[in-house]
Give the backbone structure.
Amino acid sequence: MLSKILFIGPMGAGKSTAIAQISQIDPVSTEVENSDRAQFDKATTTVAMDYGEVALNDELSLMLYGIPGQDRFDFVWPVLAQGALGAILLLNNESPEAIREMHDFLEAFPELTQKHAVVIGVGRVSASSPMKDYRRALMERNLPLPVFITDARDRQQVLLLLETLVATAEINQYLDGTSLHG
Amino acid sequence: MDSDPQGPHSLKETCNRHLAKLQETLNALRMAVVCTTDGFPVAIYDPHSGKGQRATAMASTLNGLTQTISRELSLGRVDGTALDCAEGLVLCRLVPNQRRDLVLFTCTGTDDTYGQALWAVRNVVKYLAEELNQMPPMTSSEHEGTQQNG
């Protein structure tokens, strides 16, 4: 079984890094020089998509698509989202707008959000960071989505997000009377 | 050589001048933009649609995707991409130069043939690249200016 997973979130949240960490093929990237060092100080940025592949087990392989995070590229988001089983939403906790960015991306992918097919990974979290703020913001919208502290450079942490997303999708599809495994 | 980014030979002014030449050459030119490879506008000719700035992001995506496809297939650098549409033609071409690579994205109607449009766009890319190579290195304020111009 082959399924498609999206990696969504703002610029600098770690989407390309996460895909590179877990992909079992050389990732396909569309990175170019970053002009917008004021928004996020990194050398390159994705302008079209990232792509990787990983087999979670003998029965399920995942195609991993990463979106370009800046909203000026929002025209390509629905193209990449077609047929996706769900999405990993990566956030940068050091961003003062992290909660708003979470809401923005959930609204940008309404089909996945409505069927709760989104798992959230929050990066750059210090020991005192109030993760409950994210959960409270989600509960205010009646969205009980899983939220994890995630270092996108850590393969095991990214795999945990994927496995959680797949488990959530399986439960949803079981409830819907469909099956992920045909 | 003028190193003032706001001066007569600024990056934006230079690109605008070449877009004006393109406008003189192609009767059916609807839109032309020059942008950075990550989608920030440098110069925009867009008299009607109001989509010029959005086109800069699409230009960088199209350029990035085609460069990646070519790289993955070991076909070398892509100089240009064409979309042959029912109501016109979109040509997207890299403007390679020693300062910083840019992208020229043009949209023409059906009154210009593919050959005319391609010839005109290739000439603009050639002469724009030559002029950019004569300019001093990009300053930090000019670099930031690419995010504000348009």
Remarks:
- The CA atoms of residues 93 and 124 of chain A lie 6 Å apart.
- The beta strands of chain A are 2-8, 28-33, 44-55, 61-66, 86-92, 118-123, 147-149.
- The longest helix of chain A spans residues 155-176.
- Chain A has six helices and seven strands.
